[in-house]
Amino acid sequence: MIELKNVTKEFKIGAKDKVTALKDINLHVGKGETVLLKGPSGSGKSTILSLIAALNKPTSGEVIVDGKRVSKLADNFTALFRRENIGFIFQRYNLIPTLSAKENVIVPLIPSNPDPIKLEKRLQELFSSFSLDSKMGVIVKNLSGGEQQRVAIMRSLINNPTIIIADEPTANLDKKLSLEFIEILRKLKSSENSIVIASHDPLFFDLDFIDRQIDIQNGEIQCY
Amino acid sequence: MQNKINRFLLDFSVLSIFRRGSKNIFIFFVFTLLIFLLSSILFISNSIKSELDTTLNELPDITVQRLQAGRAINMPLSRVDRLLAIEGVKAVIPRVWGYYYFANAGVNFSVVGIDSFEDQYRDLYSKLCDKFDFDRLKKDSGMLVGVGVKKILQNSFYGDYFNFVKPDGGLTKIKIDGVFKGDTKLESNDIILLTSQKAREIFGMNKNEAVDFVVKVANPTEIPNIARKITTLYPDSRVVTKEDLSISYQNLFDYKSGLFLALFVISAFTFFMIIYDKASGISSDEKREIGILKAVGWKIDDILKEKFYEAFILSFASFVTALCLSLFYVYFLNAPLLKNIFIGYSTLKPAFDLPFAFDFQTNAIIFFLTVPIYIAATIIPSWRVASMDADEVMR
User: Fold this and answer.
1) How many percent of chain A have pLDDT more than 90?
2) Is A104 in contact with A95 (CB distance < 8 Å)?
3) Is B221 within a domain?
4) Which of A135, B71, B327, B358 has the highest Cβ tally under 10 A?
C-alpha cells in the first residue's frame, strides 16, 4: 500500500548548507497495517510522514502509494491525492483558529462542493462519536487542547481516508488525554485503513494494536 | 455539476473576510475612501464638462467690443446699421450689461439689460425662469434675480425691491419680479435681469450706447470672414468669435481640471501604495492557513478561487459603496469643498447644483483601475505561497 524506495531527503539551510533528514530509506506499510515510527526528535520521522502524504517531495528515491508514484505527481494531483486518500493528524493540530469546530472539520471537503444533506449527516455522526456535539459551533481557539485534537482527528476522517497519518499526536496532551487518543486510534484500526504514527511517547510502545515499530535514528532506519 | 457555484467555497470566503475583520474593515474603509475620491473627482469633472458644453453651445457667434487705450469702452449704437450691412450678418444685438458691486455683502452682481425684441434672451432666460414674462418686467420696471442674489438681498433685509446706487450717487429703486430656478445654470445664480433702459440708468450709460454687440451669422463657416470684415470696418474694435470664447472657457476648465487631476493623481498614488504594500507581503497567519488548506487537499486553483472570491467581494462592495457615496456627495450634497475648486473664483459663491451626468465609461474606468488591481494584488502573493510545498509553508 505504502512504499518508500531509496528515499533521501535533504533540506537547504541558507544558500549553501544543507541537512540530510533521510538517508536511503526503504519502507513498506501494508493495507490495514498500523505502524509506529519511533525515535528522538529530529530523527526524520515527521519527514517520512510528510513524504507519504505528498506534502513534500524526496530529493531522490520514490514514494509509491496504492501504486501511484506520489513523489512524481504535479502539485494539483498531490492535493487531490491527499483529499481522497490521506487523513493527517498534525502535531500542533494545524486547525484554523478563527473557524468553529464544524467549519474546521469540513475544510477538506469544501473544494469538492459536497452534498449539504450528506455532509450534515456525516458531521453529526463524527461529532457524536467524538462526544463533541455541543461544541460544533465553538471557535476552536476557545476549545481545550484535547477537544482541539479531537476536532483535528475528525477533520482527518471527514473524507473517509484509507491512510491515517499521525505526527506526534500526544506531544501536546497530558497522560489522560493521550490515553483517550490511543483509544480513538484503536477504534480507527480496521482492515481497510493503514495507520502510520510517528511518536517518541513511550505510551505507544506496548500497544497491542500496533503491528510494527520502526526505529529511526539520524534519518536512517535502525530496525523493524 | 463542475460549473455549479461552490456555495461552501463562497461561504468560506465570506467567513474569511469577517475572520480577518479588523484588517478587512481597514482595507474596506481605505479602499472605499479612495474610490469615493476618484469617482467624486471624475463625477464633478464630468458634470462641469457637460455644463461647459451646454454653455459653449449658447455662446454668441461674434461679440464686438470697442477698445480705447486697450480697455473696453461702450459702443455707439450708430454702428449697428453698418454692421448689419455686412453680407452674411443675420442680426446685431446691442448688449447692456455689467457688474454691480454690492458693498454690504462684498459681492458683485451681474446686471443684464434686455429688450423685448431680443429673442435670443427670451429663449435663454425662459429656460432659467419658470414664468418668464418680459412684458411684466417692462411694465413694472422690475427685475428677475438669481437665487444667490435673492438670498444676499434678503440677508440685507431687501424683500421685494432693491435700491441701486447710480454713479451720480442717486438711487434707483427696482422691484423684484421673480427669481430664476435655483437648479438651473451656474451663470444664472448671480444675475440680475432687467430692461436695458433700467440697466443704462444703473450704470449711468448714455441711451445711444451699449456695452458690446452680439453679431449673429447665418452661415457658421463665414464667422472668421465676417469677424475680419468687422475689424477692417472698425479698427478700434475687438472681435471675439465663438471659437475664441470656447478656447478661453476650455482653458479655464482645463486649468481647473488640472487641479482635479492633481487630486486624482494623489488619490491614485495612495491607492497604488496600499496595493503595493498588500501585494508585497502576506501575513504569517495567512501563509500558515494556505499551508493548512494545501495539506488537507486544496489544490492551488481552489486556494486562488477562494482568494478571488474574498478579494472580489471586498473590493466590489467597496466599489459599490464608494460609487453610491460619491453619487450622493456630488449630486445630492452638491460636492461641498471639492466643487469650490472649480467655481471658487465667483465672488457670489453660487449655490448652483451640479447637473447629473452619469457616464458609463467613467465608471468603467474607475472599476478597472481599482477592483481588478486589488484582486490581482491579493491573488499574486497567495499564488506565490500556494505554489510552495505545503510542509514548507506550514513550517
Assistant:
1) 56
2) yes
3) no
4) A135
Percent of residues, chain B, with pLDDT higher than 70: 83
Tell whether the model's pLDDT for residue A91 goes beyond 50: yes
- For A2-94+162-223, the fitting CATH number among 3.40.50.300, 3.40.109.10, 3.30.70.1450, 3.30.70.1130 is 3.40.50.300
pLDDT tens-digit series, residues B217-250: 989 899 999 999 999 999 999 998 888 877 777 7
Q: Which of B316, B3, B351 is nearest to B183 (CA)?
A: B351
- Domain end marker among B210, B241, B260: B210
Cβ-based interface (< 8 Å): residues of A facing B: 50, 53, 55-57, 75-76, 79-80, 82-84, 86, 88, 90, 94-96, 98-99, 103, 106-111, 113-114, 116, 155, 159
Strands B209-210 and B143-145: unpaired
Q: Which single residue is written with the C-alpha cell 453651445?
A: B57
Residues B194 and B274 in one domain: no
- Residue at a domain's end among B210, B228, B258: B210
Backbone φ and ψ of A4, nearest 5°: -110, 125
pLDDT at B1: 45
Mean pLDDT across chain B, nearest whole number? 82
Helix axes A116-129 and A145-157, enclosed angle (nearest 10): 140
Number of structural domains chain B divides into: 2
- Shortest Cα distance, chain A CAs vs residue B382, angstroms: 15
What type of residue is B376?
A
With contact defined as beta carbons under 8 Å apart, do A44 and A218 qualify?
yes
B interface with A, Cβ–Cβ below 8 Å: 4, 6-9, 12, 15, 19-20, 288-289, 291-302, 387, 389-392, 394
Over the stretch B41-78, which tens digit does the pLDDT of each residue have? 888 878 877 777 777 777 788 999 999 998 989 999 99
Asked if A15 and A177 touch (Cβ cutoff 8 Å), the reply is no
Cell output for B77: 449704437
Same domain, B18 and B128: no
Model confidence pLDDT, tens digit, residues B161-214: 899 999 998 898 998 888 876 554 555 678 888 888 889 999 999 889 999 998
pLDDT digits (tens, 9 = 90+) for B109-123: 889 887 755 555 566
- One domain, residues B49 and B143: no
* B124 and B51 fall within a common domain: no
Structural contact between residues A83 and B293, judged by C-beta atoms closer than 8 angstroms? no
Instruction: Indicate the residue type of B170.
Output: G
Look up the domain containing B194 and give its range. Answer: 75-210
Domain range annotation of chain A = 2-94+162-223
